[in-house]
Amino acid sequence: MNLANPSTNTTDDEIKKILSTCKTVAVVGLSARPERASFAIASFLKVKGFRVVPVNPGLDAVLGEKCYPALSAIPFPVDIVDVFRKSEAVPEIAAEAVKIGAKVLWLQLGVINIEAVEKYGDDITIIMDRCIKVEYSRLFGAGGV
After folding, report:
1. Phi/psi class of residue 44: alpha, beta or left (left: φ > 0; alpha: ψ in -120 to 50)?
2. For residues 36 and 47, what is the distance between their CA atoms, to the nearest angstrom?
3. 22: which DSSP letter?
4. How far is CA 113 from the centre of its chain?
């Protein structure tokens, strides 16, 4: 991984494979407010056929889906953990993502934590400082996978 430029830490081929094989996305910090990026991106993922699992201890449901207070409370496997939290929260989220067996920790634009990469990068694929919606649209276009 290129720690000097974390947005180059994964190749297009790797991202394409992740987005075409992983189908369950836990969205940590998903807001119920439609004007928030997390809501728009989770909505997009649902439209594209992903199973969106909201993770927010302050909500019961978002986008018609049951909301879980933490990753460890989700009673089924998760492929991708998409993070809409401050960078300082990432090490704890990364530890939990590894513990539940997630394949990918996806840190949205502006979310960067080198400590988490150094500590957990061998245990989980970490995509940092990239928007999952932007990458999906760029690699698959409007039609999708």
Report:
1. alpha
2. 17
3. -
4. 14
Please give the model's pTM, rounded to 2 decimal places: 0.92
Pair 11, 107: CB distance under 8 Å: no
Block means of pLDDT (10 residues each) for the chain, 145 residues, are 53 95 98 97 97 97 97 98 97 98 96 93 94 95 66
Residues written for the chain: 145
For residue 71, which phi and psi values (nearest 5 degrees)? Answer: -60, -40
Judge whether 76 and 52 are in contact, CB under 8 Å: no
Phi first, then psi: what are they for 143, rounded to 5°?
A: -75, -30
Identify the burial level of 75 via C-beta atoms within 10 angstroms of its C-beta, where 0-12 means exposed, 13-18 middle and 19 or more buried.
exposed
CA 66, 67, 68, 74 torsion: positive or negative? Answer: positive
Q: What element of type H or E holds 139?
A: helix 132-140
Compute CA distances 50 → 21, 58, 115, whole Å.
Answer: 10, 23, 29
Backbone angles phi, psi at 32, to 5 degrees: -90, 0
Query: CA 34, CA 56: separation in Å to the nearest integer?
Result: 15
